[in-house]
Amino acid sequence: MRPAATEPPSVVLAVGPLLGGLLTEHFSWSAVFWVNVPIGAVAAWVALRVVRESSDPTSSSLDVPGALLITGALFSLVWALIETNTHAFGSAYTLSFLTLGIVMLGGFIARESTAADPMIPLGFFARRRFSAPIAVMLLTGFVLFGTVYYMTLYFQNVKGLGALDAGLRTLPLTLMILVVAPTVGRINQRVGPRWVVTLGMTLVAGGMLGLTQLDVGSGYGAVWPFFVLVGTGIAMIMPTLSAAAMGAVEAAKSGVASGVLNTARQIGGALGIAVLGAVAAPRITDSWLSAAAQLPAPVAARADGLTELVIGGQGRVVGRIGSMGAQDAALEAFMSGMHAALYTTFGLTVAAAVLAVTGLSGGRSAEAVPSGHAVAAGG
């Protein structure tokens, strides 16, 4: 039996948000990056001493041009979307990065289709059993990362919680991944990936729909049940997709399949944050400026300059600068944009469920998902 894609133990998912909150609250936001330096050093040392060397006998060289082209393409496309918060979508700045990204992506495809030893054999994507899990994983990353981003802003900026308290409130999501993941492999063996992923997506969709009902005054009781649904669904989806994608390619290319799958998740996450920001920002801006026009003249005159704070959910800061009326208007404006973002994730989750039904194999999976392992939500 071929080993499935290597995944970090899912217990890390529960520790990550808590550790991140602790470091941010008691040290600095930069500490969440610096802490990875010693961890990376230890991991490198362990890998050199313990991990057995492996190789792909069908590959003889590193596709450097392909790697540079796809890296540049993804950077340009994601950067263009992220910067729509400060540059209009139709601006020369945004369009130049979009154009560059598309050109480099075309160059990558041309390179891979002609290279003797391509980084990613494009023929893989002609196999539905491979391309469907990749597409579903991309959508899953989009929904998960984008939702966690907005829920973090909600906890910290709208509800006024510290970073550690916000991390604690994510536990219902991360702990469900820890609890459910060990059973997914056995279920996948019995019923196949199609129904496991479809059910998981249905649970995530229910969680997304529930989160769209939050408002400024909602208590935590309106959050955690839907985090449980999302966490359970994610625990069913990600390891099952890993097994499906790995089972669709030759054993010698399993490393490529694993790399493509994890890259799809990361790209989906980056796009989720960028695209949902592009969806929410105009809605927040329109709502804020409309409400600010009804506020006292001194506050209304400063509304444009406060827009960036409102987009970030920092209504309490706006209130200190202006008035309680400005704070309320800013928070309500942020919630309108957050609702638009969450409705978008709901729609994409439904689309992913349909894709799972139509694109994934209905038979039993030939791959086992390692017990107690799951794809990490944040990296």
Distance between the termini: 27 Å
- Note the beta-strand portion: under 5%
Apparent shape:
globular
- What string, H for helix and E for strand, traces the elements in order? HHHHHHHHHHHHHHH
Q: Gyration radius, to the nearest Å?
A: 22 Å
* CATH C-level of the largest domain: Mainly Alpha
Q: How many distinct domains?
A: 2
Report the helical percentage: over 70%
Poorly predicted parts:
1-9, 364-379
Please state the average pLDDT score: 84
- The CATH homologous superfamily of the largest domain: MFS general substrate transporter like domains
Task: Provide the CATH topology of the largest domain.
Answer: Growth Hormone, Chain: A
- Would you report the number of β strands? 0
Summary, kept brief:
It contains 15 helices and no strands.
In words, what does this structure look like?
The chain is mostly helical and 379 residues long. The chain has 2 domains: 11-28 and 125-359, MFS general substrate transporter like domains (Growth Hormone, Chain: A, Up-down Bundle); 64-118. It is built from 15 helices and no strands. The two termini are 27 Å apart. The relative contact order is 0.16.
Keywords:
single chain, 379 residues, mainly alpha, Growth Hormone, Chain: A, 0% strand, globular, disordered N terminus, disordered C terminus
Describe how the helices and strands are arranged:
Blueprint (H helix, E strand, L loop, with lengths): L10 H16 L4 H4 L1 H15 L13 H19 L9 H23 L13 H31 L4 H6 L2 H21 L1 H19 L12 H23 L7 H39 L4 H5 L1 H9 L3 H7 L2 H36 L20
Helix pairs in contact: 1-8, 4-5, 4-11, 6-10, 6-11, 6-15, 8-9, 8-10, 9-10, 9-15, 10-11, 11-13, 11-15, 14-15
